[in-house]
Design goal:
Length: 310
């Protein structure tokens, strides 16, 4: 029997999640959206791509959660996208209601699922899903670090004219302009980045990474990034379903790690069949620790607002 993944939200991120999942033949997909006809139409369109692209999975569109019952993974992408000039934080209260409702419905019908949250502001929305679902913290994960790291790796590879596969990097912290790309641990085929680029150029790449989402919003004008975010969420889902135990930077609920308590913050995690199976605590410099705590404080401000609404 094939696994089942529910994707909540049939917009650009959700539809592309369904496409990546089908292409990898990871699981059957249930695409859920409140807009009548949209998940059904996109689901049918993706299903009809199977004979062309050679995948055999069932893709179902729905406006209710009944078909999602007993899902192995629930990916929550539903929410309002950012517009030019809008920060992720501006989305907080509107998307809180969306994620709260989606989590209630999905968790009720799939009590053993693992939830991957993509909706922004990411870290606060992951915390919302944890509070609402009452799932163990290992089974509620935020997709942020995989995307942020992919952006950092892309910019480095482009600057140096090398394969992205040779670039190793890690980005910690909240999913926003306070994120912390760890330059000290970044390398190209084992060569430290600091030996390949000067400080000014590295700082420029770090800044571009921190503003990676805003850069795309500025270009698109009427939406936000969706190809890379959906690919990142599906990489996480694949590691979980196949028990690959990949070490990926994810938004995880910390209880003392890195000196952070009771918040979702991006850190390296081992993802397997149980969800987050291990959090890796890196030895950070005083400067890196300060930057991470600053990022965590930004997340805390949003979470405090959410808690006041619950």
């Amino acid at each position: 029997m094939r696994k089942k993944i529910t994707v909540v939200g049939a917009g650009n991120v959700g539809a592309n999640c369904a496409m990546w999942i089908a292409g990898k033949e990871l699981a059957d997909v249930v695409l859920v959206d409140v807009v009548e006809g949209v998940p059904q139409g996109k689901g049918l369109d993706l299903l009809q791509s199977g004979p062309v692209n050679g995948y055999d999975v069932m893709i179902t569109g729905a406006n209710d959660y009944a078909p999602t019952a007993d899902s192995d993974i629930v990916i929550i992408t539903a929410g309002f996208p950012r517009k030019p000039g809008m920060s992720r934080d501006d989305l907080l209260l509107a998307n809180y209601e969306v994620v709260k409702t989606a989590t209630e419905q999905a968790a009720k019908l799939s009590p053993n699922a693992i939830i991957i949250v993509v909706t922004n502001p990411l870290d606060a929305m992951a915390q919302t899903a944890l509070m609402v679902s009452k799932f163990p913290k290992q089974r509620v994960i935020g997709m942020a670090g995989v995307l942020d790291t992919a952006r950092f790796r892309t910019f480095i590879a482009t600057e140096l004219g090398v394969s992205v596969e040779n670039v190793t990097a890690v980005v910690l912290g909240g999913h926003g302009d306070t994120m912390v790309p760890l330059v000290r641990l970044t390398n190209v085929a084992g060569i430290p980045l600091t030996e390949l680029l000067d400080e000014a150029k590295i700082n420029a790449l770090v800044t571009r990474t921190q503003n990676g989402g805003a850069e795309i919003v500025k270009y698109l004008k009427t939406g936000s990034a969706y190809y890379a975010p959906s690919a990142a969420a599906v990489e996480m889902a694949e590691s979980i379903l196949k028990d690959k135990k990949k070490v990926l930077p994810c938004a995880a609920y910390l209880e003392g790690e890195y000196g952070v308590n009771g918040l979702y913050v991006g850190v390296p995690c081992k993802l397997g069949v149980g969800g987050i199976e291990k959090i890796y605590e890196l030895k950070l410099t005083a400067e890196e620790t300060a930057a991470l705590h600053k990022s965590a404080n930004s997340v805390k401000e949003l979470v405090d607002v959410i808690k006041s609404k619950m």
